[in-house]
Design brief:
The complex is a heterodimer of chains A (about 325) and B (about 290).
Chain A (H helix, E strand, L loop, with lengths): L2 H18 L23 E5 L4 E6 L3 E3 L4 E8 L21 E5 L11 E10 L6 E2 L2 E6 L9 E6 L2 E2 L1 E3 L33 H25 L3 H7 L3 H15 L3 H17 L8 H9 L5 H19 L6 H15 L4
Helix pairs in contact in A: 4-5, 4-8, 5-7, 5-8, 6-7, 7-8
Chain B lengths: L1 H12 L5 E3 L2 H15 L4 H19 L4 H13 L4 E3 L5 H13 L3 H14 L4 H11 L22 H4 L2 H22 L7 H31 L2 E4 L27 E8 L2 E5 L5 E5 L3 E3 L6
Parallel strand pairs in B: 1-2
Antiparallel strand pairs in B: 3-4, 3-7, 4-5, 5-6
Helix pairs in contact in B: 1-4, 2-3, 3-5, 5-6, 5-7, 6-7, 9-10
The chains are: A alpha+beta (about 325), B alpha+beta (about 290).
Amino acid sequence: MSRTTKRAHGLLSVCLVLLLAPPAIAQEVDSDDAPPFYQPTEHFYNALGRSVTVEWSADRTEVPVGGNIAVTLTVRGATNPHRVHKPNLRDLPKFKAFEVVDSTDPPAAGDAKEVRFKYVLRPRSADVSEIPELQFNYVNLAAPEGKQVRTTYAKKLPIRVTPAASAATAAAGPLIAPERFFRLRDDYAEPTEPGWVGWLGMVLLVPLATAIWVFCWRLLNPGGVRLAKLRRNRAVARALDALARAAKSPDPAANAALAMRVYLIGRWGMPPAAAVPAEVAVALKATELPNERIAAAVEFFRKCDAARFAPCNEGGASLVEDGREMILTWEDVE
Amino acid sequence: MRFAAALALLIAASAPASAQRLDGAYEWATEAFEGGVASRSDSPAARSQFADAARWFDIAWGIVLPEEEVETNRILKSKNIPSWFPPPPCPALALNRGHAHFLAGNLPQAIRAFHDGLALAPYDAELQQSLAAARATIDYPNPSDPAERTRPDPPSRLRNRVAPWDLYRAAVVCWVLIVVGLGKRFTTQPGWAVPVAAAGGVGFLVIAACGWQMHRERLADEANPVAVVATDGVTLRKGNGDSFPPRIEAKLPRGAEVRVIGRRGGWAQVELPGRAVGWLPETGVISATDQDR
């Protein structure tokens, strides 16, 4: 057999092998993905596109040994995002430093601009310093034959792995933390504050409430105003208070007489030396009091003396009331 | 996976509307949290559950990470729900967020959550106690210069002690004293009327002063929000660049709290609890205020 014949036989054998070979590799790509003649098997995840990029992102940059770090691989620029396969990190030697926990990702839409694959990685030791670089092959069908397979990389992501020092971040065993952290509060109520209306209203209500108070009191006590004015006179106020106390005392007649004497001395200028009714009558005649009032006052003192020296000492309460009425009448209080 | 499934179920269960309040996030978070408590004898499994709970609490608070936002919006749109909004923030949610983050091992996020809650209710005793417990796990350096102190002071200001409603109740008591005193003064005029009204007035003035002080403290907090150091060994520098020398010798521990004074070129000017001022890279701190909402 000539050399040319042998070469022809070799080419024919290769063609036959290629034609008769089961389409195991081609099954990786769906019919609408227009399978290329050559299918790379390693680091190829069925991505087609002119310019595909991949990128790592993580939810944190620091993680304790055995702790979870959620990382996301984002694939952009693929024309078949719904066909792109999720890289199995467990099969990649670079990721042996991690325990890989897969998450199920929702399927990407056919017109999505990017595909996201989520993983939860647990670093096995504190020596880990990065999420490793990931090689990602894709096929550009628009490129000339032989240059269709392109390679891009998800750049490594530096992380810091801390030893499991804290009780709450211990790698194994029970989770030890203050007991209060294991309890939830369930009163999901929005906090409220008294608004400025409440504060302003309170301030404005002070004069209003006071005015209402005074108005109602005057309505219920017609002579109250006059009485209130009277109380500004120290002698009258003292006499009324003394009469009020005399009603509760063991000898109301004597105390009522004393209160009336104090009143007459302070209010009408009666000399303090006048003690008995006759002396009071003489002393009051020197004042501005009319005769009928003088007579009433003398009569009051006589009744007081009679009550004081009577065997049963009765009528004290009525004398106190008489004295009070006398003062209020003289002061023109209804 | 669990998170995505839970979100899908939550949205499927909800009726379509133009904007919906995600109250259901509480239930999912609580379920995950209780799962973590049930499996607390297995630390990694429990932490994973607590991390799930923390994410749900974050969503309930209105914090959605960028990668989750795309997924969330996609599922919502497929269900004819153009938008959603979180339930109103409350101290209980912040407290639960903090607990979940702490148990998941995310100390800075836990401290941030407690500060978020204290921004709402600075007088909340549970938040203060949890913040103190979280701080107790941090190994603060002990510098010789008091200005370089990184250990924060316990919350001891007026707004950390007095609730606005307590102040209002005290004001109501003073109001009653004033009205009774003035009412009696203008009617029967007893001797005690004026002193009582005066006592009420003085009390009212004291309450007004307290309210003003609390307002000032609130403005100061809002002007210089708290930020939390996200990683261990962060250097406080004298300027906003790696070429500047360190402001203090000690490195800031993870979870240390600082007050942000300003920001420039990816760096934050911060003040330590000891009053020393320096610069930190913005990537090294997380804001502890409600800026994400």
